[in-house]
Amino acid sequence: MKEWFRRQPKHFTPATRDSGQQIPDNMWVKCSSCGELNYVKQLNDNLKVCKCGYHMRLTAREWLGLLDADTFVEEDAELAPSDPLEFVSTKDVYVQKLAENQERTGLNDALVSGHGTIQGNPLHIAVSEFTFIGGSMGSVYGERLARAAERAAELQHPLLTITATGGARQHEGVLSLMQMAKTNMALTRLAAIGQPHFALLVDPCYAGVMASYASVADVIIAEPGARIGFAGQRVIEQTIRQKLPAHFQTAEFMVEHGMIDMVVPRAELRATLARLLRLYGGTASNDVVADDIPATLQV
Ligand SMILES: [Zn+2]
Question: Which numeric CATH code is attached to 57-283?
Fold first, then answer.
């Protein structure tokens, strides 16, 4: 797993941003969970997982390092967001916010999609970028995701979605909410031809995206400690006036309660996905052995 990042250094920019923290000389990164300092090189070798086990955030481009080297081909990059509602609030002006986020991330919206391979198994992939307006789903995000699912169906490929998001993008109003139905319709067509959708949920994964495509996958995987839900814990507690259990809305809580299928540490993700692609896709190597079946799926 370490190898896939090393082979593609251009896809792995050492962390300077985690929970907004900026380390001046880029030599050390403070873990926002345990507060310990991590030497950047060591942290990168460890796929941005702290010694304490905390999984720091990766960018969409870094996530593409899960694919075999140089196999990613981006699609629909030409789609560009617009400002259909001419949205202005007391906090921000949407067109300005878009421009700032585009300049900072080098992306034109919060989802990157295309196709590639993992251990030779072809797949379509759609990855959200949390640092782009909170990984929120607007029209371009939804259209890219729907097209990725439609192309996967056309080519009879599995689809992998990797999601960290705050939900639907309020700046595009009901057009954002429409993406929930549109993405699920495209996934229904993928399911109809018998190709799987694998969803990897990354911290945090909430609201309109969890209420649509991210929670309907055939196999739902989450990273350790990822927070997953619809409304946040504080909002629920204030609404129902009850204290919620410890670890509520964590990946571990979700797997215990049957909402997701697996919690997989980052170092084991690529091998796990390769096994799943072989098992469900059946397009590459067919030499599946019992060991290939993840423990949580063995009956
Ligand atoms: Zn830590």
Answer: 3.90.226.10
